[in-house]
Write a structure and sequence with these properties.
Number of helices: 4
Helix content: 25-40%
CATH class of one domain: Alpha Beta
Order of helices and strands: HEHEHEH
CATH architecture of one domain: 2-Layer Sandwich
Structural class: alpha+beta
Low-confidence stretches: 106-112
Distance between the termini: 64 Å
Number of strands: 3
CATH superfamily of one domain: Hypothetical protein rpa1041
Shape: globular
Largest sheet: 3 strands, antiparallel
CATH topology of one domain: Alpha-Beta Plaits
Radius of gyration: 17 Å
Strand order of the largest sheet: 1-3-2
Strand content: 15-25%
Length: 112
């Protein structure tokens, strides 16, 4: 009997394969989605949630954030998250707080 391939805790390395491509085969333009903190795993949670919905996410570290990532395991500057341009609206809708709408109206955002 074949043993299952164990992958828990491993970061998938298939971003380029999952990234949408144009008619000419080049990857679609990446656009800014949000900034997130890494110290509390906020960034990883957002990335994995979006991945679960089929939205690939690229991370970009500002300043010298990669050094902190290597030494501490997270960047003290946070990380910027980028998604394919065609999936930006879907990604924004998924990360929007519950009960709020795009224009800021909703039960949690009523005018005071």
């Amino acid at each position: 009997m074949d043993e299952p391939k164990l992958s828990w805790g491993q970061t998938p390395r298939d971003l380029l394969e999952r990234w949408p491509k144009g008619a000419d085969g080049t990857p679609e333009k990446a656009v800014f989605l949000t900034d997130a903190f890494e110290a509390d795993a906020q960034a990883d949670l957002l990335v994995e949630m979006l991945r679960a919905y089929g939205i690939p996410v690229a991370k970009r570290y500002a300043k010298d954030g990669t050094l902190g990532k290597v030494v501490l395991g997270f960047s003290g500057y946070g990380v910027s998250l980028y998604v394919p341009e065609s999936l930006l609206d879907d990604a924004r809708a998924l990360i929007r707080p519950a009960g709020s709408s795009e224009d800021g109206e909703g039960p949690d955002n009523e005018a005071q």
